[in-house]
Amino acid sequence: xxxxxxxxxxxxxxxxxxxxxxxxxxxxGRFGLLLYQSFRSIGEVRTYWENLLIQMVRIGVESIPIxxxxxxxxxxxxxxxxxxxxxxxxxxxxxxxxxxxxxMILELAIVTTxxxxxxxxxxxxxAEIGTMRxxxxxxxxxxxxxxxxxxxxxxxxxxxxLMFPVLYAVACFVGIGGGIxxxxxxxxxxxxxxxxxxxLYFKASDxxxxxxxxxxxxxxxxxxxxxxxxFASGGAEGVGRATTQxxxxxxxxxxxxxxxxxxxxx
Amino acid sequence: MIExxxxxxxxxxxxxxxxxxxxxxxxxxxxxxxxxxxxxxxxMKNIIGLLKPDSGEIFIDGVDTCTLSYRESRxxxxxxxxxxxxxxxxxxxxxxxxxxxPLHMIKRMPxxxxxxxxxxxxxxxxxxxxxxxxxxxxxxxxxxxxALARAIALEPKYIFYDEPTSGLDPKxxxxxxxxxxDLDLRLGVTGIVITHDMHxxxxxxxGIAFIHEGRIHWTGDVDDLHAATDKILLEFVKASEYQIxxx
Lengths: 266, 247
Description:
The complex is a heterodimer of chains A (266) and B (247).
Chain A: H1 18-41, H2 45-60, H3 64-86, H4 94-134, H5 137-143, H6 148-185, H7 191-201, H8 204-230, H9 235-265
Helix pairs in contact in A: 1-6, 2-6, 3-4, 3-6, 4-6, 4-7, 4-8, 4-9, 6-8, 8-9
Chain B: E1 2-11, E2 14-24, E3 29-33, H1 40-48, E4 55-60, E5 63-64, H2 70-77, E6 80-83, H3 95-105, H4 111-124, H5 140-152, E7 158-162, H6 170-187, E8 190-195, H7 198-204, E9 207-212, E10 215-220, H8 222-227, H9 231-246
Parallel strand pairs in B: 3-8, 3-9, 6-7, 7-8
Antiparallel strand pairs in B: 1-2, 1-4, 4-5, 9-10
């Protein structure tokens, strides 16, 4: 119904969050543009292969200690809490292993890994590339005839996609190991029963699901962080802003992606 | 030869360059003079291809760079050496690696040949002993000299200098000016210097274009500059002389 509205002389539309909406679409556009340029540059292997190996070490190998630490404690806490809730004469103790193992494989290992790396890897990528942007180092790369996207963005995104599944595997093993140790230490479940329960409830499709999530999150974190860094502006403050936004937005998209993938694939 | 025809460039609602036309002949040191914010660096980035003009044409050796694909544009840029305002050295690499970078990444030069060229470039800027140092260990003037060594590494035909003396003390500025003139003469390259430094301009310029509020306001050489009667140009020169005297 348009009763009472003068359609001949409409008042100009004013959006309450016009600026924010414009910024959002600008950001989506930048992300799309950088992705498009990255896909176009993927054939320039000679430009990025050395950097790819360096990034695989920085993103993957150097992240193993923090990922292992986070996964070990997730596994341990999940075991202790499951034991607290499930200990009953009617429930076999092996059920605790049956709860912890699928939880680690399906959810905890990958989400913990991704959230930890959103801070560690995401912030580092945005800060590195952002600093290169504001100090004209990216202009210097382009000015000498090098494809800056191929040199900086492609190896980081590829390293993320390649190394996140490896980190996910590490997190699964260490997390389950943490659960076994916590079960023994708290005297709630012996290792043998924990493993027995875990094997009983283990499904190979859960691993496939976890691997798919790790690929998606590896891409999400690196792509968002590269975009934030690549389009940073405004000196040190701009780099700081890009770094914070990279970490925060990566976390948001991990949580959102986790829900969407669970809805789509399970 | 570089020829810029009716160039317009703006950002958001602000037009930075208005109808800029310019001819830079080969084998000379050409200075684009103007105060901060006048559009000098935007002009340089348009010529290099780091920015796309809104309209107008830019010819490098007869090739219209505005119609080139990204790949063709990158190939053309191998003829350019650029000294950025802050040096833009890669801070994760030593001075040696910075100079070796374009030789390794662009020319794919064998290691022995690359080493010889790097040392040759560092000697040209009188810094062979700084090879192992990281950019953070170098003074501002030394960083600019290493950046200059990197800029000449690929033996470019054109070298762009963006504010080469800004932030440097007068003595180091003179060293950089001497180096620019010496390199342009010795290597036979075309130097395009973007600056607001009158002292530098008078020391090195073969040709001058004065840019004011995004327009080429005046062109000539050093003799013409001494005889100039243009009010805006004279105001700029006077302000610069005062600054030099003041310091």
